[in-house]
Amino acid sequence: MSNPVFSNSDVFGEPRRTGAPQGARGGTATAPNPYSQYGTAGQAPMGADQLGAMYDAPSATPADTKRLTYDDVIIKTGGLLALLVVVAAATFMLAPGLVWVGLIGGLVLGLVNAFKKNPSPFLITAYAVFQGMFVGGISFVFNGYEGIVFQAIIGTVSVFAGSLFLFKTGKIQVTPKFTRFLMMALIGYALFSLINLVLVWTDALGGFGMRNGWLGIAVGAFAIVLGIMSLMVDFDFIKRGVEEGIPAKFAWTAAFGLIVTLVWLYTEILRLLAIINIFSGD
């Protein structure tokens, strides 16, 4: 279970086999006309000047053919992150109570966007707004620990940069075995978090529930490792999308997927730092 934003996508998912040409199945394949680009019956052929201009023209780039590029992903991701940070800052200072609105709205729009076949810039932008409310509100809650929010921001940026470096240099390869381990680990972590949440909400356990002391620190560190692995898989999905020449509109999907992982990573780092502060103060 890698990032569902990418794994549920028809274009970012694993390559699919295509059917063989008709002639390979026993049918009759019609040979292409090598001169069809210069004109067909009833049409005037291109002149020497036109052919010369075509020959001298530069090769088409991915941007010219409306295919996905890394620049597309960077621009969309940067824009959404900037919007999220502005909303988070406003929520933190003016209306931290909007954390619940952001949590519910982000959850609903996250599921909607994750399972849409075609990206909706409006819905993805709205998701960033709700996530900004959630991030601002949850940061306000944890702000009682001096400097923790700034530390979590620096930690998230550092983890993202380190993950990108490891991926670009090939230090860690995203293989099917890597992805399977991540899937099983995320399922196990999700079940643990759900049980822990129920125990906290029902007052069976106080504070962070089972995530206290050394166990809480170990679980938090494990979650951050899962976040790093998730970023690796996200980068791999984007790389394959660019190499396979998928439509440029899916830059919105790529940006959305990265935002999902980064927000989760930030909240995990924030929680880990809070547990460390509590544990060290005992």
From TrEMBL:
Polar residues compositional bias, start-end: 1-10
Keyword rRNA-binding listed: no
Region (Disordered), start-end ranges: 1-36
A Pfam cross-reference name: BaxI_1
Transmembrane segments: 73-92, 122-142, 148-167, 179-201, 213-238, 250-279
Domain of life: Bacteria
InterPro entries listed in its UniProt record: BaxI_1-like
UniProt keyword list: Membrane, Transmembrane, Transmembrane helix
Name listed for the protein in its UniProt record: Putative YccA/Bax inhibitor family protein
Source species: Myceligenerans xiligouense
Taxon lineage: Bacteria, Bacillati, Actinomycetota, Actinomycetes, Micrococcales
